[in-house]
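Final report, section 2: Outcomes. Of the targets proposed, F-box domain-containing protein is the one most frequently requested by collaborating groups, and we therefore present its record in full.
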Amino acid sequence: MALASLHSICLHRIYGFLKEGMWKFCLTNPFSELPAQDVNKLMEMTHLHQHEDPPNIGDVILLLTSGRLTRLDLCPFYPEEEQDLIVKAKQTRAGSIFLPNCASYSKELFIFHLVRNITSVNPYLEEFHSYIHPGFDVLRNCQNLRILTIYPSYGKLSLDHFPVNLSALSSLRKLEVLHLSNMDTDTIANVLEICPKLISIGLDDSLDSMEEIHQRRLKNSSLNFDVGSHFQLRRCVWGKDSWFENRQERRVYNSGFCDKTRFAVTLCPLVQELIFYVHIKEAMKELRFLKQLTLLRIDFDRYEGDFVREFVALLQEIGPQLKHLSIIWKEPFIDYYRVPVDVICDCCPHLESLEIIQFIFEPGFSSEASINFPLKRLKLSALYESDPESVLSLLSNCKHLEELFLEDVDGFDDALLRQIFESNRFTELKVIFVEGCNLTREGYQMFMEKASSFETVFIAADEENYFYDAKRVFKDPNLHYLEDAYFYVKLKEFFLCRLDEKRF
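The predicted structure is given below as tokens.
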């Protein structure tokens, strides 16, 4: 047996013993001497089972207080629901956690001190994700921190409203990814200027902050910003993902949108991954100066009017450098918004991943480049008025697909699938996820019979769901899917993972 396999088996056995409480009466924490990578792996096992077996802090308190963690994700836990269990675990198990008079604490104060203590006993943290802010004084001691994400508190808890401590953040010299809830324009601008190594501020829109920084630098003319004045940001969100209820506010915002975008491009020329909400179509021109951009999600749902010509012009400029493209089109569907799908293929010859949401495109491929489209991943979603010919044309010519996700695609049924298979055998397809379409059991069997490379298949039909996974022990393709199968497949979709708030 390979050493790696034996090691994995041992970790799974240890995790099982941990859940059973084997070490609850130990005088010292048995995990404090384990390699950090093993303690991290054991914590990952807890998160892997969160849908079928929600994790409890009381079960893994020894891991959380081992002092060996380099990655700490507290988001899957619900400590407010297990206060008594945590107190009992603290009293009976080894650990370095201190909660004086915890029985008399209010729920919020108890949870706050719990998170503070867990954080403080793990000084080697490189990643920290939580709904509960532990306080900047504790985070200051985590000098290896590269990723810090604090999300808004859920339910009735209100433990995320901490004023941003710029001094503490500036002391974290290795910090690369920062997402703090409730950061306003000035705060984001201040954070960017005191944290020079930041490559991402999460899914916060930084467009207004870029304008603020630009204005500050204009006022402070005594400083020379020509050399090394740009930021190191690699991942950005530009534009507001919201509707303006007030027309005057919308007019003011839109009037400066092109300038804001130009300032952002100038200050962030190294951006590689961008989520861009289009409010003014002319602003798209500025993106052509992002020479390192390889992933673009472009959202037109906030724009009113025709924008197809400008979008095609943008693709003609930056298409050759793009590897991943996500397009969120415009509602309501209007015929003159249609784009020939071969335009995307011709403009983006190196595209590996494509996501199309609320999108109407015309069928047909006009060039050899389109027919030899190198696409590996495709997701079509919310195509409620799609033309089956368009879907047929696209899927028939994606010969190198490895992942296919279809959600709410009108017209995708057994008959259309049969037509697609006549021209494309999907010889490299490994993952298929179909939901909200019109496939039946016959369509599922067609996939299983005609494509031999599949590793995972999940099809949600009208009356029944079908699930197959080559890694599972039972290979019967008609076996009813497990409860976690839906998430097991769906959450692996490329753009969902790549643009996830914990990663972006």
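The longest strand covers residues 377-383.
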